[in-house]
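Hi D.,

Good news: the full-assembly prediction came through. Inputs first.
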Amino acid sequence: MNLFRSEEHVARWLDSRGLKAGATISSAKLGELAEAWWSDRLADDWRPRTRAESQAILDRLGLTGEFWQLP
Amino acid sequence: MDDLELRNLVYRRFVELGRAPTREELSTDEAALRRLHDAHWIVLEPDRTEIRMANPFSAVPTPYRVEANGRSWFGNCAWDAFGIPAALGVDGHISSSCPDCGEPIEIDIVDRRPEPAGTVFHVAVPASGWWDDIVFT
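Then the structure:
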């Protein structure tokens, strides 16, 4: 789960290692995802999310399709 | 102290110390930490009962250094690095470098948004396999 300067850099990095592409999103979308995923982590009333709750976060942000399906 | 209280203590101490708390600092035993690991609430080192991750915080240096609230931590990955200011509820700064070309990547998180825009985040492993090897993921 890495940050790259651009999609071109992702493609070159994958190619140089013979790796298959996963999913690429903008840093702005990553910011939204991080906020939704982690903002409760230090709360005194934290409780573990269910799989459905975690999947709902991904879905709400448009991170859909087989790649983003949690087990 | 029940497991949830211990988990919250791990996180509180991680924030206060800027590093993972030791078992002695938590006044707990190996079995309790192992239960948190098995629940995916923290991640232990593979060969010993020491905390490796309390996501988004990393106990070991990584390519994702985060400054926030006058302290610094390491995120386990880019997602986690963005998650540290989110968890703290403050602005922050992320220092990393492009894995392809090695050029520095410096990002400010201001009002929950990264600046400058333009960098991209690549996830290699599908969500179904994130916990198969969380250190690699």
